[in-house]
Amino acid sequence: MAAYLTRRLLSILLVLLGITVVTFFLAQVIPIDPAVAALGENAREEQIAEFRARYGLDRPLPEQYLRYLGRLLQGDLGRSLRTGRPVAEDLAEFFPATLELALAAFLVALLLGLPAGVLASLYPNRAPDLAVRLGALVLGSTPVFFVAILLLDLLHRRLGLFPGPGRLDPFLIPPPRVTGVVSLDALLARDLTAFLDALWHLVLPALVLGSVYAALLARMVRAAMLDVLAQDYVRTAWAKGAGPARVVLGHALKNAALPILTLLGSLLGGLLSGAVLTETIFSWPGLGRYVTQSATSLDFPAVMGVTLLVGVVYSLLNLLVDLLYAWVDPRIRYA
């Protein structure tokens, strides 16, 4: 196992190195001068030259890349052209909001998609199955921004059941920042009012984002379960009089877990990469809004920093899923 982990970690480093090469040189293909984009078209030549010299943009491309790589090895992701702050500080500020929303949406997707997929597989081509397939089709084909606007209008503006955009009521004093996750910071500060308000603000965006992923998960769980339920050992378990819970949970769902785990890893990776539309509509200050604003202002250091972070997240999640394979299926061994 140690040798396998070493190889995987080395491969992750190679992947991240490839990401830096691709993103750096693709950024140079864009026919727009980042100095002009940052300073404006009315900037004087002296200002543009000073800006390029300050950020090393007047150096040859290979030298720029090597200098960037050298700083990266020291943990320096560069300085954002838009905010003027180190990119690492920006990521530390915006990523916790995305993490909070991603975990909540992932929980919603699990609670909705997993039982729905199992239920549909137990009643193939009957009413529960048709209802789940229809619901998954509608949710999966509806744009997320439409679902977000619809629920905001209905549940917030018309019925007043949920708060509006934002992470916290503007009249509440935010808890001291410790982790950047507002609900957790409020809990650490023992501020029950802020904690409950943060959770209440989290429900609607998590429901919007999680329901879309729940549709995909339900379809995958249904397909995997139907394949396993048709196996001889499952029919034997039914014939021996095993209860539904033992057959479904102990035999069928456990043996259908491998493709489901793969999908769950991809879903969580996608959520942690930032949900641009959901974060924008709900004024959620996360990674999706940050990278969108950085890309539109040609803030290359920020875009490259976010790309590296997403690469790390996906790589580590893939490694975690592979390790869970061995836990779920003892026949899998890593050497």
Strand content: under 5%
| Poorly predicted sequence stretches spanning 5 or more consecutive residues | none
Query: What is the gyration radius calculated from CA atoms?
Result: 24 Å
- Under CATH at level 1, the class of the largest domain stands as Mainly Alpha
CATH superfamily of the largest domain: MetI-like
Order of helices and strands: HHHHHHHHHHHHHHH
Secondary-structure-derived class: mainly alpha
The tally of domains stands at: 2
Main sheet? none
Notable features of this structure?
MetI-like fold, single chain, cell membrane, mainly alpha, MetI-like_sf, BPD_transp_1_N, 335 residues, transmembrane helix, plasmid
Describe this structure in words.
Helix 6 (127-141) packs across helix 9 (192-229) and helix 14 (287-296) runs antiparallel to helix 15. The chain folds into 2 domains: 32-76, no CATH class; 88-328, MetI-like fold, CATH 1.10.3720.10. The protein contains 15 helices and no strands. It is globular, with a radius of gyration of 24 Å. It is mainly α and 335 residues long. It has helices spanning 2-29, 34-39, 45-54, 61-73, 87-122, 127-141, 144-158, 182-188, 192-229, 232-239, 244-255, 257-272, 276-281, 287-296, 300-328.
SSE topology:
Blueprint (H helix, E strand, L loop, with lengths): L1 H28 L4 H6 L5 H10 L6 H13 L13 H36 L4 H15 L2 H15 L23 H7 L3 H38 L2 H8 L4 H12 L1 H16 L3 H6 L5 H10 L3 H29 L7
Helix pairs in contact: 1-15, 5-6, 5-9, 5-12, 5-15, 6-9, 7-9, 8-9, 9-11, 9-12, 10-11, 12-15, 14-15
Brief description of this entry?
The protein has 335 residues and is mainly alpha-helical. The protein has 15 helices and no strands. It is found in: Cell membrane.
